[in-house]
Amino acid sequence: MHPDNDGKKPLFEQLRGLLLLFGFGLCTLTFLVAIDRAEWSKQPSTVAAAAMPGEPGAPADNSRAS
User: Is the whole-model pTM more than 0.85?
Assistant: First the structure.
């Protein structure tokens, strides 16, 4: 890197850095909100989640039927 005379980065580099940081923050926020909202998923993501009793979309437990 070449040192500038006044020690400041060019405006383009500052904007690029801010946009990258903003994009990362927005993606992180979107991910955290999405994992908190189970109703956004149409199906369980794991077999263990699908097998939980009492959860919507859980398979019927026919092993105890008489």
Answer: no
